[in-house]
Amino acid sequence: MDYANDFLEGLYKAMLRIRLCEESIVEPILKREVLCPCHLYSGQEAIAAGLGASLHERDYVFSNHRSHGHFLAKGGSMAGMFAEIYGRETGCSRGRGGSMHLIDPGVGMLGSAPIVSGTISLAIGAALAGKIRQEDRVAVTFFGDGATGEGVLYEALNFAALMKLPVIFVCENNYYATHMPVRDCRVTNNIHKIADPFCIDKAEVDGNDVLKVYEAGRKAVEKCRNGEGPFFLECLTYRLRGHVGPDDNVQGQHTDIRPPEEVENWRQKDPIMNYEKKLVGQYSFDVDALNKIKMDVAAEVKNAHVSAKNSPYPDRKNVLRYVFK
Amino acid sequence: MSSNRKLGYSLAINEAFHQMMATDPSVFLMGQGTKSPWYVGNTAKDLLDRFGTSRVIDTPISENAMTGAAVGAALAGMKPIVVHPRMDFMLYAFDPIINQAANWYYMNGGRLSVPVVIWGIINRGGEQAAQHSQALHAMFAHTPGLKVVMPATPYDAKGLMIAAIRDPNPVVYIDDRWLYSCEEDVPEEIYEVEIGKGVIRKKGKDCTIVAVSYMVPEAMKAVDVLAEDGISAELVDLRTVKPLDKEIILSSVRKTGRLVVADVGWQSFGISAEVAALVAAEVFEFLKAPIQRVALPDCPAPASSPLEKAYYPMGEDIVEAVKRFNF
Fold it and tell me: Which of A191, A145, A142, A141 is nearest to A166 (CA)?
């Protein structure tokens, strides 16, 4: 496929922003400067970036506990995200939500929530809203393989199919639901096939290949815009960090979950590393130019930390504010 | 301009829907039975014909996802009403109601509110046993971020529904099938009954009866019986369970010094406990006698009629509670 260089660079930058943000939180967590639970997205960047590139600003996104990547790729403010993670009044949720409640309605990021499968039904509702108003909007819900254990997913698939809603169900299958390998939770790992009994179009894609995710996302979005929704997209991927926080969930360590060889094998499939190779090898990008982008993004991330840490905490006298509008 | 005519409780709700859907394109109704009079009585009468299937959506039996869809549509700028014809089934929807709708505005720092009406119908009695008859309002009232209204009259049924639809927050609107047949004058125009404001249905000086939902007409009967015995009871209809109209309760108890709370739900940890605690904390020195509670016992609802009669408190139980004051 031919792509404009700006577009390819945009995908690179989108993934890099997520990765550098995620890895920059590790130290503050260990130093207890960041206290809220952070579910790092390192390793899964191609999915948020690929989908993000296929959507318009007016489209809606709902996210789950692992929300940083979805938020950034939809255009959410990095400064607002870090201020939120540090619990500051300037955060995107004014310090009331933390890492798991990132929101930016102005760019269609309608929210994130850690109740597994909890935002899937919200996304079909947002799609329904667009359909009732006869607007050209698509809604995307991101969820993990663990969410396939929740009944509400199947209720949502059925209703979305029945109403032909413009909604894309994006399952990020990273093979683990917290500590449970998917093989211990499901009889098969062909998650995309759960779309079949609902007659929903589906695809399974290498979730570590940003261009493949983008192409799959683009087709899904197009179908939804043509009134041929919904769509189910399973993205196979792996989280390089553990379920929550910087812990790697590697066997022999404190959480003792994943075989070291398995983790190492997936490190070789690092979506950013491999995309860099492709940009240089296949699309003739200059290594120095990529390094320059990396430095720019690193500076942006550093500034966002500094600005967040210099921002005020919410005033304790306002603890009861925002219960009702 | 305003002309009042007698309207039944369920048709008063129906009129609220017609008027709100006609004047605001973001209002729509979804849930089980919206096209079936068997399910929701005549509350949905003629809505489908007038507004079509895109705004009157009869849904599959999927309470969790359907309620979540209503919440999501609200987040995307609509004003949905989602109906649960038997509120027992709302328990399937606790996640979208409590985890999501109730918390969304707070946990997102006020960035996005949830203007949804979650409508649950209580179906007391009728030998329907424990899973077709429950009154679960206290569970919702316990949760920060939810408003809970329980109209007892046709006038309030319409005015509170309109207020609930217009409210930018999630409102749990709870009615009772036993109220559907009552009639009274209801204005034809659009009007609101303010959420969070109770009303004195009958002035009195000897004791205060605080009642909610179906216990209001029962308490009205009790007030009449007590009057024959020379006892002047004041009846406060809460109308809204949350936020509670504290002042109307406190000022009445300051005057009468005696309190009976009559609830349609269970006694333990419920509305009657909340009102009693409020009164004990705020106006203890005015109390001339221990607070009396008339509510459901700590027991699931039975089926068999004789057991139902023992189970559901009625007007005579309120009379009996008042008489325990030994005037």
Answer: A141
Cβ-contact A96, B44 below 8 angstroms: no
Question: pTM of whole model > 0.95?
Answer: yes
- Is residue B202 within 8 Å of B170, Cβ to Cβ? no
Tens-digit pLDDT profile for residues A83-109:
999 999 999 999 999 999 999 999 999
Which of A60, A121, A324 is facing B96, going by the closest CB pair? A121
Amino acid at B207: C
Nearest to A322 among B55, B60, B106 (CB): B106
Whether residue B63 lies in the annotated active site: yes
DSSP A314: P
Reported ipTM: 0.96
Contact check, Cβ <8 Å, A156/B65: yes
Task: State the nearest Cα–Cα gap between B144 and chain A, in angstroms.
Answer: 7
pLDDT digits (tens, 9 = 90+) for A202-213: 999 999 999 999
What are the b/e assignments for A260-275, b being 16+ CB within 10 Å?
eeebeebeebbbbeeb
A101–B107: do the CB atoms touch at under 8 Å?
Answer: yes
A150: number of CA atoms within 13 Å, CB side? 22
Taking CB atoms and an 8 Å cutoff, what residues of chain A touch B107?
A: 93, 96-97, 101
Catalytic residue among B132, B137, B218, B308: B132
Residue B238's nearest CA partner among B122, B293, B156, B143 is B156
- Does A128 sit within 8 Å of B73, measured CB to CB? yes
As a whole number of angstroms, the distance between CA B238 and CA B216 comes to 9
Q: Is B234 one of the annotated active-site residues of the chain? A: no
Q: What is the arithmetic mean of pLDDT over B2-28?
A: 93
CA A145, distance to chain mean position in Å, is 13
- Summarised one tens digit per residue, pLDDT across range A252-290 is 877 888 999 999 999 999 999 999 999 999 999 999 999
**B63-75 vs A120-132: helix crossing angle, rounded to 10:** 60
Gap between the Cα atoms of B64 and A15, Å rounded: 34
Angle, helices A5-30/A78-85, rounded to nearest 10 degrees: 10
Q: Do A324 and B145 touch (CB under 8 A)?
A: yes
